[in-house]
């Protein structure tokens, strides 16, 4: 009996760290997608950016279609897949506007109002109990973000409101992904994302089409592969972690985004970024320790 208890505890601990590893890969992929999307938007419309991101994803999915097709054709939870991807596509559109018009760190900081919505939708839809540790992780992460961006006149931008709407949409989308993982493999969820969002992107792109150049191709690949990888890794993480545990960890995406913005786009960066990162890291480590005990 004692051996069984130790085995279960070790398995739970391993699942936690594997889930965190997938979250780390998801963070890096999101940053890559952001860079590719911003560079594409120099010459193309934002609607085209969404279309080409999905088109690149289609080429990748085709490579795995033989293994995915038996489950795809069963169309499990298709209505939920449709709702999730419509919400996510709309949120992506607003988010991409923010990526193009605002500093990367500011966009990610505003996006991280999302855990509030994740906690709400996880409670309302998944019936996940919002424990004290998780709520403190959300609060600590949000405080860290505020330290990084120090909201003031510099962040007051019409695009900021769109990013906040996107954050709410992402929060609902992630909780729906958690629900989808109960009957669908992560690869199938990502495949449905491409199959549904590609026609949505094409219709939108045709309303604002601009000439496409060969120089745009590398950025299309980066944006599309980054988007696909980000959502696959997130789905893998959500198979192993509660949504309200996984998302506060995602706050750690902000400091790398600030560094990338500084290196590639000469966006201002200072000691406050690292002070905020310390708050984010500390609050999440405390929450993770509490989760292990629980």
Q: What is the fold's blueprint, element by element?
A:
Elements: H1 2-40, H2 46-63, H3 65-72, H4 78-101, H5 104-111, H6 114-126, H7 132-149, H8 158-180, H9 186-206, H10 217-240, H11 243-249, H12 254-265, H13 271-293
Structure at a glance:
The chain is mostly helical. The chain has 13 helices and no strands.
- Residues in helices, as a percent range: over 70%
Radius of gyration, whole Å: 19 Å
Query: Hey, roughly how much beta strand do the residues contain?
Result: under 5%
Q: Are there runs of 5+ residues with pLDDT below 50, and where?
A: none
Chain-averaged pLDDT = 83
The helix/strand class is: mainly alpha
How many beta-strand segments? 0
How far apart the termini lie comes to 19 Å
Cα shape: globular
Tally of contiguous helical segments: 13
Largest sheet: none
What brief labels describe this structure?
294 residues; mainly alpha; 13 helices; 81% helix; globular
Walk me through the structure.
With 294 residues, the chain is mostly helical. 81% of the residues lie in helices and 0% in strands.
């Amino acid at each position: 009996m004692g051996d069984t208890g130790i085995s279960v505890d070790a398995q739970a601990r391993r699942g936690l760290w594997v889930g965190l590893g997938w979250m780390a890969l998801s963070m890096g992929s999101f940053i890559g997608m952001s860079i590719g999307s911003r560079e594409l938007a120099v010459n193309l419309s934002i609607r085209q950016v969404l279309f080409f991101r999905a088109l690149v994803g289609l080429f990748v999915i085709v490579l795995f279609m033989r293994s995915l097709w038996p489950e795809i054709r069963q169309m499990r939870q298709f209505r939920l897949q449709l709702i999730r991807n419509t919400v996510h596509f709309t949120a992506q559109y607003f988010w991409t506007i923010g990526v193009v018009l605002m500093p990367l760190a500011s966009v990610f900081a505003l996006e991280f109002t999302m855990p509030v919505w994740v906690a709400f939708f996880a409670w309302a839809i998944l019936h996940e109990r919002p424990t004290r540790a998780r709520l403190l992780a959300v609060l600590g992460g949000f405080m860290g973000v505020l330290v990084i961006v120090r909201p003031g006149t510099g962040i007051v931008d019409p695009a900021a409101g769109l990013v906040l709407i996107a954050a709410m949409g992402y929060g609902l989308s992630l909780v729906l992904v958690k629900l989808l993982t109960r009957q669908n493999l992560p690869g199938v969820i990502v495949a449905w994302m491409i199959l549904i969002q590609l026609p949505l992107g094409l219709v939108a792109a045709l309303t604002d089409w601009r000439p496409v150049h060969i120089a745009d191709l590398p950025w299309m690949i980066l944006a599309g592969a980054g988007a696909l990888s980000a959502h696959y890794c997130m789905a893998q993480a959500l198979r192993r972690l509660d949504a309200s545990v996984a998302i506060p960890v995602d706050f750690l995406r902000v400091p790398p985004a600030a560094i990338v913005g500084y290196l590639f786009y000469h966006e201002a960066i200072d000691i406050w970024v690292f002070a905020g990162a310390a708050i984010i890291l500390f609050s999440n480590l405390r929450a993770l320790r509490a989760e292990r005990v629980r």
